Fold this sequence. Notes:
Elements: E1 5-10, H1 14-18, E2 24-28, H2 30-36, E3 47-50, H3 56-64, E4 71-76, H4 78-91, E5 96-99, E6 111-112, E7 115-116, E8 119-120, E9 123-124, E10 130-135, H5 136-139, H6 144-154, H7 156-170, H8 178-193, H9 195-200, H10 203-222, H11 232-244, H12 250-265, H13 274-284, H14 290-293, H15 297-315, H16 328-338
Parallel strand pairs: 1-10, 2-3, 2-4, 4-5, 5-10
Antiparallel strand pairs: 6-9, 7-8
Helix pairs in contact: 6-10, 6-12, 7-12, 8-10, 11-12, 11-15, 12-13
Zinc ion binds near residues 153, 234, 250 and 254.
Amino acid sequence: MPEHVQTVYGSNILESELAPLQPYVLVTMEMPWQVCKQRFSTIPPAHIARVNSLDVEKLDAVYEGLPDNVNIVGLGGGTALDSAKYFAYRRQRRPLLIPSITSSNGPFTDFISIRKNGGSFGFKVDGYPKKIVVDYDLIRLANPRYNRAGYGDLLYIQTTLNDWRIAGADSTEQPVDPSIEQRLISIMDSAFANAEEIGAGTDQGIRLLMEHTQESSGLYIDYPQYPISAGSEHLFAWNLELVTGKELIHGEMVSLGVVISSFLQRKYVKDSRYRELRQALDTAGVLYHPDEIGVGWDEIQQTLLTVEEYNQRVRKFHSVFGKTAWTPALFEELREYVVLRSPDVV
Ligand SMILES: [Zn+2]
């Protein structure tokens, strides 16, 4: 992993990491602050900068209110940590980033994902230094559902790789690079083997999930020429959000996308690992079943019918959806697998 990203892991390490940074500003959102504030009582922030969006105009307004000569500390998920990265960059400071949940690669990437007028306005600062503190006890303060969703989001690696294998064989995408493929497979092997540990939120499980998230985002940052940052599972999740207009948990939507995509991919690749994927989600206790996450089969069907149009308009990925002809028979087969949880399909 690049040396400019320093990650420290441990139990109850937060206070000793904060002490040398005083005075500091804490960039956070309401929910992580309410859940975690007890942990900031001995080394309190000089100022709390509350953010609620990555819109650059809103962020700049918050930035104007920051005191001078302070360190920048971020606490929360993707929005809070990207805001902290942005403020630290403007101040030319090295941010301390404290994930309150495991379900985001935000702390690790060099990309600062801010927005303007609803569109992406992000930028990448190669090699910008940052320190990340993963305090197991702090992360366990969050509802375990979020950390489990983070595990589901990690499983994108398999369905994204499957898409690449299919497109590589069709020559719509460059062929799969065997060394990258091997690294992706080894992350997946470990993710499968440790599903129970990660789902239980043990120290070791949290660490594995964070390390694998860091490793996978390191790969797509180092190899931007390969289609490994997201695939059909994320297309499904992004379009499901558009079609339903519901506020769903990202990692749970992706998990449902993983189940659906891997099921479709099994017809085109030798081993899409679809059985292992669903088993791993079940073992870790990730919510992904439509009834559990609050989406109807009609919404799923509508999402799938429009996903390729969405893809061509917005993302232009080569995914299994580009090869899929939606017939009533296929929808019925999929519904049995996804909704009725039929145990096995050939
Ligand atoms: Zn994701």
